[in-house]
Amino acid sequence: MGADQCVEVTGSDPSTCKTCGAVIGGTKYCSACNDSGSTAAPTDGVCTTDNAVCSAKSNGVCTTCTGSSFMFKGGCYATANAPGKTMCTNAANGVCSAAADGYFVPSTNDRDASHQSVIPCGSEEEITVKNDHKYKGVAHCTQCDTPNPASDTTAVAATCTACEDGYFVAQGSAACTACDEQCATCEGTNSESKCKSCKEGYFLGATSGTAGKCIQCSSKAETNWPGVDNCAKCTSSNTQNTPATCTECADNYYLKTDGTPSCVTNCGEGFFPTTVNSIKKCVPCSETSNGGIANCAKCSLKASSTRAGAAVTCTECGSGKKLSPLKDACLTDCPAGTYDDNNVCKSCNTIAGCSTCSSGTVCTKCETGKIVKTADGATSCIDESACNNGFFVKEQDGSKTCEACDSTCKTCSGAAGQCTSCKTDTPYLKKTQLTDQTGTCTTEQECTNGNKYYVDDTDPKTCKACAEGTFEGCETCGKSTEGAVACKTCGSQKKIRPDKKGCIDACPPDVSTEKNGVCECVEGYAPTADGSSCASSSANKSGLSTGAIVGISVAAVVDCSVPLTGYLPLHNEQSKQSYYC
């Protein structure tokens, strides 16, 4: 049976304990064994028949100790081991000569091996020793000295030098006197005590190393030693006019420790309420050790399905970090599928089918099978086949997007300004080359205003370059007064040819006249098939003009190398010479 398992047993088994009456350091040990003879007795608090330290036994107790042991409460204890060494530091011949802290030994003449030779300082039990003298301790005493020798059967008390917490040795007294109610430890005289430390809920109003008054943590009554409103536990500042340091607040209040600790009902911006080691506290939003979020500057508590109670939700990050979409982290960069909106990562899913975006209205990449369509500054994700009616598919760097045509286009292809059809307010499709499939859209006025184009009202309506078709060399062209398309000006001092559809170096002589740079056929003549000259407007069935026929007839009967007295002028349009017959 171990000493820390002392159990009182009724019976006659000498190895069992009858009485657990020895209390050492708060633990009970056996003080008498179940033996009516001299077989067993307690040694080091345990029933045994061994005689190594207990040389004589009677009725279950030791009557004489031996060697480096001593008697205490019916048993012999060796100084070599606990619990004996916690009471006596030196023993010989069964007698303790030097007590451990908390104990004292009777005077030398009152000690022997057959009596208890060590006594607790704080026990008021009267112990009979040699010579039938009696000694006792002092209530609440923790350290003491041996009193003057006893002279009769009246018990003498130890001289107390230190008391347990809450008591002090009054000057001129060997007894322990209770401290003021608020004190945990104190010092003082018979008439007055001063606290050295305070009970829970109070702080010492004194500078370091000195005693003073214990003040309630929430009190403001002491001018020089202020407490903290609604504080339940605190420590002293040890400095006058400096509030105590609150360590725990009253019920329904949270301890906030930024700057001077205070007790609040609302933690305020940058903090969240929680319980740390049973203490309600306001914890900084960024304090990860207590459930905060790294780099979080502002936060709140919200119900959480992932942990008991409420979870911290960050509402604003610090240090330039980005708030995650779930508001549970502060990130260096926003994750895929989100965009940065003033350091807040927001999901791109506000745009249906969008996988990457730069804002809530601008998608930069769609999910597989879709392309980005941009219209009026906003984007959407559509099927490629749906990119029409004023939009075109643009391919660049291996990706496709749906872009808006130029505002004048009804439809376009390849680029915004490459119109394939035009709107009603700009109805003319202007092509740079006749063979082009696309162009720009313009009005009739813009088409013909000072440039080399004219309008063609056939379907589809077009704005054609003057150089196209028959208007070779024209700088400007347009409708004539008769309604036909005609050349209006030529460059490089050239003249508008007779048919008004091109430019020539000079007007054909004899058959045309020049008027304001325009070649006009003379009366009776009309533009030739190529438009560059004039021919008689009366042609025979063979297709030759009357003048040509006359020329041929005369040539057949007249020798034109011989001058005649009468003459007939023959106009040769090719040689421009006159012959006379």
- Strand proportion, as a percent range, falls in 35-45%
Q: Total helix count?
A: 2
State the low-pLDDT regions, or none: 540-581
Query: Which of globular, elongated, flat, extended, rod-shaped describes the shape?
Result: rod-shaped
Task: Describe it.
The protein folds into 4 domains: 3-178, no CATH class; 198-345, Ribbon (Hormone Receptor, Insulin-like Growth Factor Receptor 1, Chain A domain 2); 439-536, no CATH class; 548-581, no CATH class. The protein is mainly beta. Mean pLDDT is 87; it is low at 540-581. The strands form 25 sheets. The protein has a 4-stranded mixed β-sheet, with no helix packed on it. A 4-stranded mixed β-sheet has the order 41-40-43-42, with no helix packed on it. A hairpin with a 2-residue loop joins strand 11 and strand 12 (95-99). The chain is 3% helix and 39% strand. The protein has 2 helices and 57 strands. The protein is rod-shaped. The protein starts with 16 loop residues before the first strand and ends in a 24-residue tail after the last helix.
Topology at a glance:
Layout: E1 17-19, E2 22-24, E3 27-29, E4 32-33, E5 41-43, E6 46-48, E7 54-58, E8 61-65, E9 69-72, E10 75-78, E11 88-92, E12 95-99, E13 103-104, E14 119-120, E15 127-128, E16 134-136, E17 141-145, E18 156-157, E19 159-163, E20 167-169, E21 176-178, E22 183-188, E23 193-198, E24 202-205, E25 213-216, E26 231-235, E27 245-249, E28 254-256, E29 262-264, E30 271-276, E31 279-284, E32 296-303, E33 310-317, E34 322-323, E35 330-331, E36 338-340, E37 345-347, E38 354-357, E39 363-366, E40 371-375, E41 378-382, E42 391-396, E43 399-404, E44 409-412, E45 419-422, E46 428-430, E47 440-442, H1 444-448, E48 453-456, E49 462-465, E50 474-479, E51 485-490, E52 495-496, E53 503-504, E54 512-515, E55 518-521, E56 525-527, E57 534-536, H2 546-557
Parallel strand pairs: 16-18, 28-31, 40-43, 46-49
Antiparallel strand pairs: 1-4, 2-3, 5-6, 7-8, 9-10, 11-12, 13-14, 15-16, 17-19, 20-21, 22-23, 24-25, 26-27, 28-29, 30-31, 32-33, 34-35, 36-37, 38-39, 40-41, 42-43, 44-45, 46-47, 48-49, 50-51, 52-53, 54-55, 56-57
